[in-house]
Specification:
CATH architecture: Orthogonal Bundle
Structural class: mainly alpha
Number of helices: 9
CATH class: Mainly Alpha
Shape: elongated
CATH superfamily: Tetracycline Repressor, domain 2
Radius of gyration: 21 Å
């Protein structure tokens, strides 16, 4: 008789997420995953088919978490303010529950050669959805007159996505919180200023 798995799937995925986040896809072993999740090998394979199946579910959970965090930061009254708040949301914060360093999406992007096609597609989709939030903010800024109509949305969205990734990864390289806060200030300086409408009239 078959039935639903006799374990908390959300807790299992969260435990596996920690393993993949700390070690990466290639280095994460089945033994590490079974020890972290409390599942036997047979239960893991029965529910998730293989390591790649478990990785995809963990990565989907991580992406949802990141997108929720980014959305919660957008509370300012302007598109520029919401973008800056989004970046500052990824600054290191004291008292936050201890988590693995860096970004799982960035780590997985660096491991593309080791991922199976479905995993690669999920990584690219996760990064694409993050960038889509930035693109939407930039287009809103153009519509509101905060940016010029010819602002380079593609380049700016990649720029700010890169900054958000740096904020998550540079603490491992020794970047201090105050340095990262100043980095956000510098990054926001890339926001193109909008020239005021000209009221100059030709003089005779």
């Amino acid at each position: 008789m078959t039935g639903k798995p006799q374990f908390d799937e959300a807790a299992v995925v969260a435990a596996a997420l920690e393993v993949f986040w700390r070690h990466g896809y290639a280095a994460a072993s089945i033994q590490q995953l079974t020890e972290a999740t409390g599942l036997s090998r047979s239960s893991l394979y029965q529910r998730f088919q293989d390591k790649d199946g478990l990785f995809r579910e963990a990565l989907a959970a991580y992406t949802a978490r990141v997108l929720q965090r980014a959305g919660a930061a957008a509370v300012a009254s302007t598109a520029r303010g919401r973008l800056e708040a989004l970046l500052r949301e990824f600054l290191p914060k004291e008292g936050r529950a201890r988590r693995p360093p860096g970004c799982l999406l960035a780590r997985s992007c660096a491991e593309m050669a080791d991922l199976l096609p479905a995993g690669r597609a999920l990584v690219l989709d996760g990064l694409g959805r993050q960038r889509a939030i930035l693109v939407a903010l930039l287009r809103e800024a153009i519509a509101n007159g905060e940016l010029a109509p010819d602002a380079d949305v593609d380049a700016l969205s990649w720029h700010f996505l890169g900054v958000s990734q740096a904020l998550l990864n540079l603490p491992q390289a020794g970047a201090k919180p105050d340095e990262l806060r100043r980095m956000v200030d510098v990054a926001m300086a890339a926001w193109p200023s909008v020239a005021p409408a000209s009221s100059t009239r030709s003089k005779r």
